[in-house]
Automatic annotation (TrEMBL):
<keyword id="KW-0732">Signal</keyword>
<dbReference type="InterPro" id="IPR049555">
    <property type="entry name" value="GDT1-like_CS"/>
</dbReference>
<comment type="similarity">
    <text>Belongs to the GDT1 family.</text>
</comment>
<feature type="signal peptide">
    <location>
        <begin position="1"/>
        <end position="16"/>
    </location>
</feature>
<keyword id="KW-0812">Transmembrane</keyword>
<feature type="transmembrane region" description="Helical">
    <location>
        <begin position="173"/>
        <end position="191"/>
    </location>
</feature>
<feature type="transmembrane region" description="Helical">
    <location>
        <begin position="211"/>
        <end position="233"/>
    </location>
</feature>
<keyword id="KW-0472">Membrane</keyword>
<dbReference type="InterPro" id="IPR001727">
    <property type="entry name" value="GDT1-like"/>
</dbReference>
<dbReference type="Pfam" id="PF01169">
    <property type="entry name" value="GDT1"/>
</dbReference>
<protein>
    <recommendedName>
        <fullName>GDT1 family protein</fullName>
    </recommendedName>
</protein>
<feature type="transmembrane region" description="Helical">
    <location>
        <begin position="99"/>
        <end position="116"/>
    </location>
</feature>
<feature type="transmembrane region" description="Helical">
    <location>
        <begin position="245"/>
        <end position="265"/>
    </location>
</feature>
<keyword id="KW-1133">Transmembrane helix</keyword>
<feature type="transmembrane region" description="Helical">
    <location>
        <begin position="67"/>
        <end position="87"/>
    </location>
</feature>
Length: 267
């Protein structure tokens, strides 16, 4: 009986010790989560300003309702980011986390070097005129294709005039939620982000255990950049110095590279 009472008396002490150990480890875990989240937000912020998807959202917002453009572009980027993060984390199932972290660090050094070379070759007053012209041409081609499809479907649309009013209301409501313009912007942004430096960076950053925090930070970064693009992206793109943005991005990737290589040697 005495042994049972003594054992019960020791339970609070063991529980307190475990709680103390867990509590002591909590700040390190929280800082790791916060670091992954912040790095993802910063990386997206510097990578997307003046980028192709940024300009698509900016130019489309000048022609269509801003909320429609924002919802389409932001959702497209969010889906791409989630898929990229999950893809990056699956590599850990085949390759040890230490090696994936090390390879991610090397990749960031390569990106940093490439951006540094691009930035140093730019003039101080370099803008985004060439990329903006390219995006405008893509938008014009997409708009022309939509008009041709509407003309082809116009002849057949007369056959459906006898539909009930309820069906018409449902179709009208659905078209407001997912309009052809919304779908067009969604796929333009999705394809524009596919294979982009920021997408590859998310795949690399998501190879560690904090991948959901990386995904969350990248999604938030995309939402912020898309919001900025929709509100006044074209004006901002003409005012900022692409040389400064590019060199800042290069510095950030070098910092990421050092951080990931250091972390890989301490796993």
């Amino acid at each position: 009986m005495f042994k049972i009472i003594a054992s019960l008396a020791l339970v609070p002490l063991v529980s307190a010790t475990t709680t103390t150990t867990t509590t002591n480890n909590m700040p390190d875990v929280s800082m790791s989560h916060l670091s992954s989240f912040s790095m993802a937000v910063a990386m997206i912020g510097l990578s997307e300003i003046g980028d192709k998807t940024f300009l698509i959202a900016a130019l489309m917002a000048m022609r269509h309702p801003r909320l429609l453009v924002f919802s389409s572009a932001a959702l497209s980027l969010a889906i791409m980011t989630i898929l990229s993060g999950i893809l990056g984390h699956t590599f850990v199932s085949f390759i040890p986390e230490r090696w994936t972290t090390y390879l991610a660090g090397i990749l960031f050094f390569v990106f940093g070097y490439k951006l540094a070379m691009e930035g140093l070759e730019m003039s101080k007053d370099a803008g985004v005129e060439e990329e903006m012209t390219e995006v405008e041409e893509e938008i014009a081609i997409s708009t022309m294709n939509e008009k041709m499809e509407d003309m082809e479907a116009g002849a057949d649309s007369k056959k459906y005039k006898e539909n009930t009013s309820i069906l018409n209301q449902i179709q009208a409501t659905f078209s407001k939620v997912i309009s052809p313009i919304w779908v067009s912007i969604f796929f333009m942004v999705f394809l524009g982000e596919l294979g982009d430096r920021s997408q590859i960076s998310i795949i690399a950053m998501a190879t560690d255990s904090d991948y959901w925090y990386v995904i969350a930070g990248a999604v938030l970064g995309h939402i912020i950049c898309t919001g900025v693009a929709v509100v006044g992206g074209k004006l901002l793109a003409t005012k900022i110095s692409m040389r400064t943005i590019t060199l800042s991005g290069a510095l950030l990737f070098f910092v990421f590279g050092i951080s990931y290589v250091y972390h890989a040697f301490h796993l």
